[in-house]
Structures are given as structure tokens and as C-alpha cells.
Design goal:
Radius of gyration: 17 Å
Helix content: over 70%
Low-confidence stretches: 7-15, 20-26, 187-191
Number of strands: 0
Order of helices and strands: HHHHHHHH
Mean pLDDT: 79
Shape: elongated
Number of helices: 8
Length: 191
């Protein structure tokens, strides 16, 4: 009943990879390295929360779960994801703009995107909480709508994060141990 929702949830972990910086090595300035360390150290625990939320949804995708169990797990996972993306936005905002051309614009766009994702997951939480759980077929139909929204979230909305991690910024992020850890956590959540 909830397999599509579980598959759509794994898309959220992909967004963490964009911020975690998957680029290759290269020379970066000390100031940019310090910025990247600050961002990565703050993002890493949030990547773990998103991975745990994804795992929680995956766990409840078995046909043995009652609609009430699925509803509770999904609502909690969406709240965790909303909180994690909000914290990521705050981390990027607090770090200030990266020391690159268009740094302030890249930072502003990434913060707005992360806050938007937070709001989207909060809205999904309300949507899943509003589903009627007495009739399994009606509940399953409601989950299809939520899965469609999740699929949309997974396919769109990470352009600003990609822009943030391009070039020097991406190289600086990729060199940080905590970003490598966040990337590995998110990859594991997808599998």
C-alpha cells in the first residue's frame, strides 16, 4: 500500500547530496575552506535525521502495517525532514556567503530553497495527518497523492543547492570530512 511513498521518500536524500558536495579536489582559499567546514559540520547531523526519516517510512511500507501505523510514521518522518531542512537553511544562512563570485546570491538562493523544502515537508505532514485511516482503500488513495507530491519534491527544487556547490565551493565542500560523511549517510538512505 505504501511502497510508492517509500520510493518517493528516497528522493529527499538526493537533495542532501547536493549540499554535501560530491565534487573532486582542487585548491580553495582558507576562508572558503573555513566556510565549507562550518556548513558541513552543521549539515552532517541533519543528513542523518533525513536518512533516519527515510528509513522510518521504508520500514512502514510493508503491507502488514495498519493505516494508523503508516500515518504516524509518515507524519513523524515528514516533521523530522521539515526540521532538518530548516536547520540546514539556518546553517547555510549563519555561515554567511561563500567567498566566491556571486557568493551572497548563491547563499540566499540555497537558504530560500532549504526553507522551502522545510515548508513543503511540514505541509505533507498536515496532509498525511488529515487522511482518514478507517477505510484502507481511501487511505491508500490519499497516500498516492502524497507520493506524487514527494516525487515532485524529489525531482525539483535543488537547483540552488547545485549552484551553491559548483566550482570552488563544491571543491571546498567535498574536501570536508563531515560532508563526506553526510554524503555517505544520504547514499545509504537511498539504497
Amino acid at each position: 500500500m505504501n511502497k510508492k511513498l517509500g520510493a518517493a521518500m528516497s528522493g529527499g536524500a538526493v537533495l542532501v547530496l547536493a549540499l554535501a558536495g560530491c565534487g573532486g579536489g582542487g585548491d580553495t582559499s582558507e576562508q572558503l575552506d573555513a566556510w565549507a567546514k562550518d556548513v558541513c559540520d552543521s549539515v552532517q547531523p541533519q543528513a542523518g535525521k533525513i536518512a533516519a526519516a527515510n528509513a522510518s517510512i521504508q520500514k512502514e511500507t510493508t503491507d502488514n502495517s495498519t493505516p494508523q501505523e503508516v500515518q504516524a510514521a509518515d507524519a513523524a518522518a515528514f516533521q523530522d525532514m521539515s526540521d532538518a531542512y530548516k536547520a540546514m537553511g539556518s546553517a547555510v544562512d549563519k555561515a554567511g556567503p561563500p567567498d566566491v563570485e556571486d557568493g551572497p546570491e548563491k547563499q540566499e538562493d540555497a537558504v530560500a530553497e532549504l526553507n522551502g523544502l522545510s515548508a513543503s515537508y511540514a505541509a505533507l505532514k498536515k496532509q498525511v495527518e488529515a487522511l482518514e485511516t478507517k477505510d484502507q482503500a481511501d487511505f491508500a488513495d490519499g497516500l498516492k497523492d502524497i507520493a506524487a507530491e514527494l516525487d515532485k519534491l524529489g525531482r525539483s527544487g535543488n537547483d540552488a543547492l547545485r549552484a551553491l556547490e559548483e566550482g570552488e565551493v563544491g571543491r571546498a565542500l567535498a574536501e570536508q570530512p563531515s560532508c563526506k560523511s553526510a554524503s555517505a549517510t544520504a547514499s545509504a538512505a537511498e539504497g
